[in-house]
Prior knowledge:
Layout: H1 2-8, H2 12-25, H3 42-54, H4 60-67, H5 73-82, E1 86-88, E2 91-93, H6 98-110, H7 116-119, E3 141-143, E4 154-156
Parallel strand pairs: 2-4
Antiparallel strand pairs: 1-3
Amino acid sequence: MRRVAGQVDRSECSVRSCWEQWTREGTHARKSGSGATRKTTRSEDRRIMRQALVDPIVTRSTIRADAGVAIVPQTISRHLVEANLKSESPFRALPLSPEHRQLRLQWCQARSMWNVTDWQKVVFSDESRFVLGIDDNRVRMWRRPGERYNPPTLFYITLPTQLV
Length: 164
């Protein structure tokens, strides 16, 4: 048992349990019905998934209230992960009009000859957030992998012209 456990990188106890189950039942598979019972039906699971697809910024507490089933937020997250949906922060983009692009190009051309000492005088701001409490009030989105730049999951930021 010890040699086999070392080869498969498992504990000796788990190898012994699998061997005993194999000799007793002729199988090594988990027994059906083991684990916690599901709190939601398939139709409720579909409703949870549909709600996250229709409104990507819906919160877990809103989904729980609409589902009508007493489930914890972790259960909702697990159901959505099973449906290949992940909670991510939205991609934020600046809507660059031709005027904005022209202004940016002029700004870059005016500073194209700057050296290191000139750039050392520039202060860049950082937008780091520090959260001391539980909720950071950030917007999260439910989306499938590869949907980062799709229009429903894209937020545009509006800035004053002098900042662009």
